[in-house]
Amino acid sequence: MKVRSLSAIALVTSVLASAMAYAQQSPAARPDLNAIPEKMPFNLPFGPPISIDRAESLVQAAIAEAKKRGWEMSVAVVDPNGDLKAFGRMDGAQFASISISQHKARVAARYRRPTRAFEDAVQKFGFNYVLTLDDIIASRGGIPLVDDGKIIGAIGCSGGAGSQDEAVCTVAANAINK
Fold first, then answer.
1. Which stretches in the chain have pLDDT values below 50?
2. Which member of 2, 126, 160, 172 has the greatest number of CB atoms within 10 A?
């Protein structure tokens, strides 16, 4: 019983210490939610959807990068609306990564920004309200595909740590995002 009580006290103490550290974080460390930007952030126009040939080549590029690193992944490419255009799941990739890769790609396309922006909003800045937005995934590995200044779709990768997913997606996305 004493061990449980001591564990509970330690847990509460660590949670309070974390909360106090967050509260003491300088205002400069967190974006000002009341600031009114001059221009709309992430305001790239939507363009024509990515072709099936390009979408499939991006899936293959991502899979090649994942194989090179020894990581099993699922890779999804979507059109600007977030609808699936091409998909690949490597042998041994976890089944959960199928829908997660598609979710990351869909969010990156529809919100016109990498999913890392949502991860940072929650993890770095504590903006938990972001999690209430429709269809959000606050995890790295979704990157918009921009051709001639317009979003033609997005790529999403899943199966590893967020940093691994993002690394594989970035290699493939760089074939278009120059």
1. 3-24
2. 172
